[in-house]
């Protein structure tokens, strides 16, 4: 249970601080802008990697856990436990963010959103559904491939958290104006559910940000396992 509790806490922190940075600072056109919001997500991963990495490996992302399962680094039981804990963490982080916003005079009606992902009207550049799927597959593929490589050698353990956090920031820089950047189904589902208080569109679209990351992670894991790592 220690591993699952760690994954719950890590995903809660990632969702609260990453999505909170977007929701509380005005999004792309706000105080932090793309780089600041991207850094919030990346730094959350760095912090959690060094806090819980020795306990659970700090996946804090169902897509990463899927890749680890495909690469036979975790069992089916752990995969299921991790994913359940991560989704619960995403809900908890989004719920805490919603409470914070409700207690604020400026954001109390939740109209500023909760950092939910989206396409069409919810995309800064108006990206359509097909484009959103392609973007999420590509971004997740790059991110998960980096995670697999960075964690495959024990000699990298001291810097793996930093590398993974920077790679998450890297994919967010491109993805934020396109879809808001998911690459993480748990980070997407929580905000989408709590966004119903200001509209249903994010919840209707959230399937893209579950399917896309899982597909990108599976592709990355298969490529890494059978081609890059040379496992036959």
List keywords for this structure.
single chain, 232 residues, mainly alpha, Glycerol uptake facilitator protein, 9 helices
Written account of the structure:
This protein is an all-alpha fold and 232 residues long. It has one domain: Up-down Bundle (Glycerol uptake facilitator protein), CATH 1.20.1080. The protein has helices at 2-24, 33-56, 62-70, 76-102, 129-150, 157-175, 185-194, 201-205, 208-228.
Number of domains: 1
* Assigned CATH class: Mainly Alpha
Helix content: 55-70%
Summarize model confidence as the mean pLDDT. Answer: 93
Helix segment count?
9
What general form does the structure show? globular
Distance between the termini: 33 Å
Q: Catalogue the unreliable spans.
A: none
Report the CATH topology name: Glycerol uptake facilitator protein
Instruction: Estimate the strand proportion.
Output: under 5%
Question: Class by helix and strand content?
Answer: mainly alpha
Rounded to the nearest angstrom, the radius of gyration is: 16 Å
């Amino acid at each position: 249970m220690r591993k699952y509790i760690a994954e719950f806490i890590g995903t809660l922190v990632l969702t609260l601080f990453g999505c909170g940075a977007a929701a509380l600072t005005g999004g792309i056109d706000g105080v932090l802008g793309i780089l600041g919001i991207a850094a919030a997500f990346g730094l959350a991963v760095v912090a959690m990697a060094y806090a819980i990495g020795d306990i659970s490996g700090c996946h804090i992302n169902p897509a990463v856990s899927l890749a680890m399962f495909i690469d036979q680094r975790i069992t089916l039981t752990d995969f299921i436990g991790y994913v359940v804990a991560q989704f619960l963490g995403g809900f908890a982080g989004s719920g805490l963010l919603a409470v914070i916003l409700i207690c604020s005079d400026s954001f109390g009606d939740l109209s500023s959103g909760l950092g939910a992902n989206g396409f069409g009207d919810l995309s800064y550049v108006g990206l359509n559904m097909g484009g959103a799927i392609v973007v999420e597959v590509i971004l997740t593929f790059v991110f998960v491939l980096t995670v697999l490589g960075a964690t495959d050698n024990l000699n990298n353990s001291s810097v793996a958290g930093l590398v993974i956090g920077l790679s998450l920031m890297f994919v967010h820089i491109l993805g934020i104006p396109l879809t808001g950047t998911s690459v993480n189904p748990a980070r997407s589902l929580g905000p989408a559910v709590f966004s119903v208080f200001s509209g249903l569109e994010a919840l209707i679209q959230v399937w893209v940000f579950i399917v896309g990351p899982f597909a990108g992670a599976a592709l990355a894991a298969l490529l890494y396992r059978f081609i890059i790592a040379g496992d036959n």
